[in-house]
Amino acid sequence: MAETRAQSRPARDVRPLEIWAWAMYDFANSGYTTVVITAIFNAYFVAVVAGGAPWATFAWTAALSLSYALVIVTAPVIGAYADLRANKKRLLLLTTVGCVLGTAALALAGPGEIAIAVVCVVISNFFFSTGSNLVAAFLPELARGRNIGKVSGWGWSLGYIGGLLTLGVCLAYVSWGQAAGQTAAQFVPVTMLITAALFALASVPTFAILRERALPQPLAPGASLVGGAFARLADTLRHAALYQDLRRFLLCIVFYQAGVQTVITLAAIYAQQAMGFSTADTLVLVLVVNVTAALGAFFLGNVQDRIGHVPTLALTLAGWIATVLIAWTADTRPLFWIAANLAGLCLGASQSAGRALVGYLSPKARRAEFFGLWGLATNLSSILGPITYGAVSWVSQGNHRLAMLITGVFFVLGLLILHGVDPRRGRRAALKNG
Questions:
Q1: Residue 143: beta bridge partners?
Q2: How many angstroms separate the CA atoms of 300 and 307, rounded?
Q3: How do residues 228-260 score in pLDDT, each as one tens digit?
Q4: 331 CB burial (10 A radius; 0-12, 13-18, 19+)
Q5: What is the DSSP letter of 147?
Q6: DSSP code for 159
Q7: End-to-end CA distance of the chain
């Protein structure tokens, strides 16, 4: 009983204020994904920047894929470098500045400015994704084993609230601009400045309060920092068998996150193409789903600490499968709204549970490095899922319902792979080899 109580508290030298400051980074950066990737700039890119050209959607997905590919190549090395130098916080500041400036620069992308838009999307999304990996690596320093799920859930739930706030402010400005007779080319660029400003402002508590607890690690004689980072990465890959449960879970992440990323990236398109939603309907849908996602992350984060990481994630993947089936069969708006809100609950819960389990299975000395591998898996899924959806809809001549049904296969595969993950065995390996 004493051990259980100890595991339900934060780490020994962590103040509640510091956990809040860490979670505030999720609050800060979520506005970027909500406004730029999901709700506003993606449609603006296709309709205004690219002028509705037939290749516009492909150009948008190609830009995102390029940014994710860059993260896949760099994430493990950046994580290893952060572990060696114990400078996660400094690197996080660098990525935050990069994403804020890249987002603000999107305001320069007017009609026909394809090159500016693509370059700024690649830059901003690269820095966003890299920063997400780095801030996640602080999680095991802030929470003990069984408490990781709860703390991770706080971060995700606060993140959805942040995304909701940023989207709400942007939509208020859009409504004002439309009432004043402005065009999208006039009011959308301002929303990019709003998003960048709110990101910068809301991240201040993280850098003012969050502590870097890790200590620099020695290099081999004559080795450079970059060379040492590559050497650590090579060593991790050579000894991957020591972390078989973490390795299996990372594969699980690739598949189930492919489904999640497809829903995030293309749900608005599905709502319009398959269900006949207007733009206003879709924006309201995004707002409501952010609320349910926040609730899912918060409440199932607490459930995770009670029933375990793997059972919680299995529950959410079953929920995702049900969501896909409901959306596929939905022929009325109320039924689709049920699917959308179930997706919101599963979205927050599955992302929170996945991050927490990576932290639980990671050895102490390689946390940033293994969260770099987590970022590699999630970004690979960000390429795999949307491209599969696009290919199916293209081959089937615009059958979005079929593409959504195929997306469900990713969740089924993830659930099957998850069945072989033993968190207790994985935790023992992390403690033994950490």
A1: 10
A2: 10
A3: 667 766 776 776 667 889 889 999 999 999 999
A4: exposed
A5: G
A6: H
A7: 26
User: Whose CA is closest to 347, among 32, 33, 12?
Assistant: 33
Q: Can you give the residue ranges of every domain in the chain? A: 17-209+236-433
CB 157 within 8 A of CB 294: yes
Contact by Cβ (8 Å): 245, 426: yes
C-alpha closest to that of 198 among 225, 173, 219, 169: 169
Q: What percent of the chain has pLDDT over 70?
A: 89
Angle between helices 56-85 and 225-238 in degrees, nearest 10: 100
Q: What's the 3-state SS for 342-384?
A: HHHHHHHHHHHHHHHHHHHHCCHHHHHHHHHHHHHHHHHHHHH
Query: Which amino acid is located at 281 in the chain?
Result: D
* Whether pLDDT at 66 is above 50: yes
- Domain 17-209+236-433 in CATH 1.20.1250.20? The answer is yes
Closest CA to 295 of 353, 358, 346: 346
β-bridge partners, 255: none
User: 423 vs 9, 26, 245, 272, 367, CA distance in Å?
Assistant: 19, 26, 7, 41, 16
> pLDDT by residue (tens digit) across 336-370?
999 988 988 888 778 777 877 888 888 877 776 77
- Nearest C-alpha neighbor of 171 from the set 13, 287, 65, 92: 287
Nearest alpha carbon to residue 188 among 118, 111, 107, 114: 107
pTM value? 0.77
273 three-state secondary structure: helix
Q: How many other C-beta atoms can be found within 10 angstroms of the C-beta atom of residue 16?
A: 8
Instruction: Report DSSP letters for 381-407, one per residue.
Output: HHHHHHHHHHHHHHHTTS-HHHHHHHH
What is the torsional sign of CA 189, 191, 196, 201? positive
In the predicted structure, residue 216 carries a pLDDT above the cut 80: no
